[in-house]
Amino acid sequence: MRNNIEKIFSAFIKFFAFIAISLLILILIFILKESIGLFNKVSFWNFVFGNEWQPLAFNPQVSIKPIIIATLYVSIIGVMIAVPIGVGFSVFISILVPEKISKVLKAFMNMLAAIPSVVYGFIGLFIIVKFFEVHFSFSTGESVFGAGILLAIMILPYIVSICNDTVCKIFKIYKIHSQSLGVSKWYMMNNLILPACKESIIASTILATGRAMGETMAVMMVIGNCPIMPTIFGRGETIPSLIALEMGSARIGSLHYHALFASGFILMLLLLIINAVFYGINRKINI
């Protein structure tokens, strides 16, 4: 009886996994199909490496190099800020604080993950943007760096969640041996736990990067939404923000419409390339 239940459960899991993969493939095919309408008129090279985004001009120009760069800038800033803090916070709540306090901090971190993006956007608009305007004398506080800071706060719970589980498991393995040998917690963290957590750190970085590159609403509210060549402390526009802002006004079948789908296709290619790079790094670390 138990074997039959396990077989049925296994069949359900395989079925839903097949459905999920099929849906992903269908989405990719649909995006690629809608993108071809652009690439029949504009070369892939000019679309990716050109500087002008003027789809409604008399002579339309659709190139997204500044938008790609802004997307990468924001994501890299967010990940660079969030990963060290997330890993350190995971070690802190797993090893250095009492269990009761650890549970409270974990609950707080889980609550951060449940806050809607638009709420983060309002927080960024009224705190981060205003801070840059007042203390750095920016003409406007909307900037790539401000969007990166906001993204770092948003992706922090994902990093902490993945790293915390691994740190707890590894700490239980080494705790008794380290105490019996008189090894300090700091030595154990630096030389035993963190090296053993490298895979989970890479996994959390991949997840955080994907989350950062796909974020729309919060980033859109603080980055300034200008399709110009971005600077760290200047305005910019990310690919998700571009699609969210302009898809509603794009006429179906127009060059503008196909260019937005092509932008989404480029975003998916970027994510695949970044995941492949992290996978290669992970393999080299494990060799």
From TrEMBL:
Keyword Iron recorded: no
Origin: domain of life: Bacteria
Locations listed in the record: Cell membrane
GO cellular component: plasma membrane
Domain named ABC transmembrane type-1: residues: 68-278
Chief site of localization: membrane
Entry membrane topology: Multi-pass membrane protein
This protein's UniProt keywords: Cell membrane, Membrane, Phosphate transport, Transmembrane, Transmembrane helix, Transport
Gene Ontology biological-process annotations: phosphate ion transport
Family per record: Belongs to the binding-protein-dependent transport system permease family. CysTW subfamily.
Protein name: Phosphate transport system permease protein
Organism in which the protein naturally occurs: Clostridium magnum DSM 2767
Annotated gene: pstC_2
